[in-house]
Amino acid sequence: MTNKKLYLDMDSTICDFMSPWMQWLVDNNYTNTLYSVEDITDYNWMFDKFGNNVKDYFTKDPLQCYSSVKEYPGFLEFILWLYINYDVEILTHSWSKKTEFAKRKWLTDRVPIDLKINFYSELNEKFKLTKNAILIDDYPLHILKHNIENKGLGIIFDFNGKNAWSKIEKYSHFTDNENYNENLTKYATNYSEVKQKLFEFLKN
Q1: How would you class 166 by CB atoms within 10 Å of its CB: exposed for 0-12, middle for 13-18, buried for 19 or more?
Q2: Quick one: the chain helix, strand, coil %, rounded to 5?
């Protein structure tokens, strides 16, 4: 085991947050088209296309929202492996105390270990926590900011390579930054690849 601190994102990193949201858009008459994660080209895609009210999916009744969120295959084995090999904690966004309760319940119902869960509402809070730590997150913007601001190790997680917003080439305005260090950032499409990237970090 290493004593290296590691923060693991939740939504779209260990669970499929987006697919039930796409179904919710159909059920609530925003669209007749059932979109997939491959259609969502960036984090603001839903808001730009349908308006800010689509946040109702996860803000009005977070418990109901997370009751339809499914874990990614292999997520539990992966978390247990991290727990054995790293000082791992969950780091996830909070919209409200109700959101925190729903996310905590989702995790404790599925993860049979005492795993610390950290919530943040502002990005600067996130990067204060991740300083001197490894960050695993589906959103390249967060990984690249961690790289530039914290000189931190990070892995962009793109489950099965299908998350359109998770492609690092979409964020050249960050990778072109003079403070960006490509050796600090890796990309993975499954949990086995994440493990391999972590081994590569430790070797360097």
Answers
A1: buried
A2: 50, 15, 35
DSSP string, 110-172: H--S---EEEESSHHHHHHHHTTSEEEES-HHHHHHHHHHH---EEEE-GGG--GGG-GGGGH
Q: Residues with Cβ < 8 Å from 141, sequence gap 6 or more?
A: 43, 171, 174
Q: Are residues 82 and 34 both part of a single domain?
A: no
Q: Which two tokens stand for residue 117?
A: 């869960």
Question: 82 and 94, same structural domain?
Answer: yes
22 and 74: one domain? no
Identify the domain containing residue 105 by its residue range: 5-16+70-203
154 is written with which tokens? Answer: 């990070």
Q: How far apart are CA 22 and CA 166, in angstroms?
A: 17
Neighbours of 22 (CB within 10 A): 20
Sheet-wide strand order for 117-120: 117-120, 87-93, 5-8, 134-137, 154-157, 185-188
* Contacts with 53 (C-beta within 8 Å, 6 or more apart), sequence order: none
> pTM of this prediction?
0.95
Task: Tell me, yes or no, whether 89 and 55 share the same domain.
Answer: no
Interval 124-172: pLDDT, tens? 999 999 999 999 999 999 999 999 999 999 999 999 999 999 998 888 8
